[in-house]
Amino acid sequence: EDRMQVEDPEILPSVLLEPEVMSVLQEPSRFQVLLRRTSFHTDDLVFDVSDNQFCLVSLKENVLHGLVAEWNEACKEGQKILPYDRLVVVNGHSSPASRLQSEFSKRFYELIMTVEHPKIQELHVKKGKAQLGLEFASGSSLGLRIDKVDPQTGFAMAGLRPYDRIVQVNGENYPSQELLKMMDADAFRMTVCSYGLAA
Fold first, then answer.
1. In what order do the strands lie in the sheet with 46-48?
2. Is the pTM of this model over 0.85?
3. Which of 10, 13, 114, 118 is the most exposed place for a label (fewest CB within 10 A)?
């Protein structure tokens, strides 16, 4: 698998990097979703399956019509289906992600799903000229997927690990290459989604 990494032999070791956890914006949780189709028009749910272990929701935040909009309007507090949520189980089937996507797309009138809200935290990174200490997998349509974390950096101490996603830098959503460029700065804020590994 290809990885994206910015290298410069003259910059300082990543061990000097100590990111600060500014805030936890959302705690992780899992919940059950029951969707009942009354027709088979295009659903308002799109998935990122670039990593076959994780099927993630790619969803317009202001969807007004469709199954997900109906669920989000009527569901309990804390159980809205949101961008970056992980689809864990669909009608009894779990990973790989391609299978979950296929199960969701089948012409079933009833969908019983387990959905995971990720832990979302914001980190303040004072990088200076130190190496970032992170490697990223290519091909993700939702942010930067972390492939490796240097265990000597503060990122490891902050709990970042492979499969986590950097979804914003300085509060802005950008394509992955733009996020990388913004992380070249001496200091920046980044928003990270972290997922459980067990199905």
1. 29-36, 110-117, 86-90, 55-58, 46-48
2. no
3. 10
